[in-house]
Amino acid sequence: MLRLLRVSHWIKNLFIFAGIIFSRHFVYPDELRTVFFAFLVFCGVSSGVYIINDLLDLSRDRHHPEKKTRPLASGRVTPGVGLIFGTLLLGLGNWFAYLLRPDFFLITITYTGMMFLYSLMLKDFIILDILVVASGYVLRAAGGALVIGVEISSWLLICTFLIALFLVMAKRRHELMVIESPAQHRMSLAGYSPLLLDQMISVVTSATVVSYAFYTLSPQTIAKFQTKNLVFTVPIVIYGVFRYLYIVYKKSEAGAPESAVVRDRPLLLAIMIWVIGVLFIIR
């Protein structure tokens, strides 16, 4: 059942905590509790979306070298059971989102609708498919800020979007390498090539580092946190990006970003150091 819910993918929902961290509201227990509940709600909604997506992709996943072991594709869970669980998770998740804050509900319902469109048709459009998936990460970050009524920097939303594009592009590249007939699994895959994705990854990784550096050096950031020291976290971000590139090109483990982050200890350590460093600097 845990595999059906894709619990390992819940790590993506940690982007919800960006708003409370960079607004420095993590010192308020009530708001920290609210964001934690928002995280749990988004976990439920995203799991519901994953289940419905698996149902819609059932015939394709059965021929995928890695996805064929998923509960629905392998037959361990029947489509009827999956539909019930998926519908319940989406219904209850969006309802709890509304109870937390109507603005947060707008985020979860937008995410739900966008991912439904992705599952039904948008995943077959080259480039648009990765833009839609990356937008899901931005909605997570925006939702975490809206649920406690704080603003989140446009620079951080841009950085979130860019790093998400990087992760999704790396995943697409991995899929091209392991699937014999990409077009049979997803039409958009036939439009990509390793060379094209390599160039796109190069652009996005450069933009990610530059955008984050600009954020740390912007007058608004310095005035908000009353320190210029956030720039010292830039080398950690650069290391993290380079380490993930190593995972993509040398270890060929970018097919599941959520697993790659947890399994690669140097990358996980770098992320932990970055979080601790940011909290210490902006406290």
Task: Tell me what you see in this structure.
The chain has two domains: 1-152, Orthogonal Bundle (Tetracycline Repressor, domain 2), CATH 1.10.357.140; 154-283. 73% of the residues lie in helices and 0% in strands. It has helices at residues 2-5, 18-22, 29-56, 58-61, 71-74, 79-100, 102-120, 128-146, 154-178, 182-185, 194-217, 219-225, 234-251, 257-263, 265-282. The mean pLDDT is 88. The chain is globular. The chain starts with a helix and ends with a helix. It is mostly helical and 283 residues long. Helix 9 (154-178) packs antiparallel against helix 11.
Write a short abstract of this structure:
By secondary structure, the protein is mainly alpha-helical. 73% of the residues lie in helices and 0% in strands.
Determine Rg (CA atoms, Å): 19 Å
Number of domains: 2
* Count of alpha/pi helices: 15
Distance between the termini: 40 Å
Beta-strand residue fraction: under 5%
Examine the secondary-structure arrangement and name the CATH architecture of the largest domain.
Orthogonal Bundle
The CATH superfamily of the largest domain is known as UbiA prenyltransferase
Overall structural class, as computed from helix and strand content, comes to: mainly alpha
Order of helices and strands: HHHHHHHHHHHHHHH
CATH topology-level name of the largest domain? Tetracycline Repressor, domain 2
Tell me the helix content.
over 70%
CATH hierarchy, class of the largest domain: Mainly Alpha
Give the number of DSSP strands.
Answer: 0
Low-confidence stretches: none
Shape: globular
